[in-house]
Amino acid sequence: MNEVYITKISKFLPNRPISNDEMEDKLGTINGKTSKGRRIVLRNNQIKTRYYAIDDNGNITHNNAQLTKEAVMGLCDDNFKAEDIELLSCGTSSPDQILPSHAAMVHGFLKNGNIEINSASGACCSGMNALKFGYLSVKSGQTQNAVATGSERTSTWMKSDTFEEELKYLETLEENPILAFNKDFLRWMLSDGAGAFLLENKPKGEQPLKIEWMEGYSYAYEIDACMYAGADKLDDGFLKPWSEYPSDQWSKKSLFAMKQDVKLLGEHILVKGVDSLKKALTKHNLKPTDIDYYLPHISSNFFKDKLYKEMTEQGVEIPWDNWFMNLSKVGNVGAGSIYIMLEELAHSGKLKKGDKILLSVPESARFAYSIALVTVC
């Protein structure tokens, strides 16, 4: 088996940073009224700025595949061209269409010759799953290099016109036309952007990062879906897919909007996350004190102190000084967040040879977790 190194990291964040006060100008108001939940959610998540693939005139500037293509091109220079890529592995929870796959669309924009592609579906863990596919390909010798990406373009999913038909329908039923909190909640959480890693079987570059191991854990066998899109959650927890509804119900129920069961999220996301972390550290005989930098992808700073408390209670406490996050500046970029976090750390000038970096990504869709350890070479 080959060793696998992250030799280059790139990110692409579209347009300019958007402040909290500008969000409804970009996404629109629901039923002509400012969201009551917005201030509560923003106060809890403590995100100050985020990025949207929407310009100041309201025009869409990039789709998801275009964002990803820009991140991939950020890896390329005179020494490594797009045509040198042997495998392109892309993860996202917000593909531009059902078919073709996200990676196929990114490859279409790259126009870099005949290569292998892989699309990892899911939510936040899709970016890590894309990374693992590339990691295993290089490790096994199937390819000498791979590019892995994580990206999201969720802003258009959150625009007010997505929900207008539902609100009109509620009015015809003489019900209060207020957007349910499980839909409104995510409008103030998510950001657009993309990140990319170049994986190679040699430690090239100024400061390569060796991938020591990657682990994944799913708790779907015991917990109902929490975050979902393209479906409606019934009272018994069953997800009824959009394809089983008449087409006139798709907009009336905002079936394609992203929704989150906030109660279920609070009950399980931290407990299962720390349980999976403990499993991974135990498997690899790694102590929390061995970790120099802990990069947790969390959707909201609301969970930060609670995560630390849960880690302490389960005996896997990582000191605050070793945490590294950039949520407040870039927002929650879902599958792209861990790429964008590591990019900032790698270019911060803080890293030194031998530093151990733990990447931790939860996915609330049906509670899955991805964990990886990388070492600075």
TrEMBL record:
Gene3D superfamilies: 3.40.47.10
Record key words, sorted: Acyltransferase, Transferase
Domain Beta-ketoacyl-[acyl-carrier-protein] synthase III C-terminal: 281-360
Record-linked InterPro entries: ACP_syn_III_C, Ketoacyl_synth_N, Thiolase-like
GO molecular function, one term: acyltransferase activity
Beta-ketoacyl synthase-like N-terminal domain sequence ranges: 120-202
Domain of life according to the entry: Bacteria
Keyword Endoplasmic reticulum carried by entry: no
Signal peptide: none
One Pfam family from the record: ACP_syn_III_C
Biological processes, Gene Ontology terms: secondary metabolite biosynthetic process
Protein name: Beta-ketoacyl-[acyl-carrier-protein] synthase III C-terminal domain-containing protein
Protein source organism: Hanstruepera neustonica
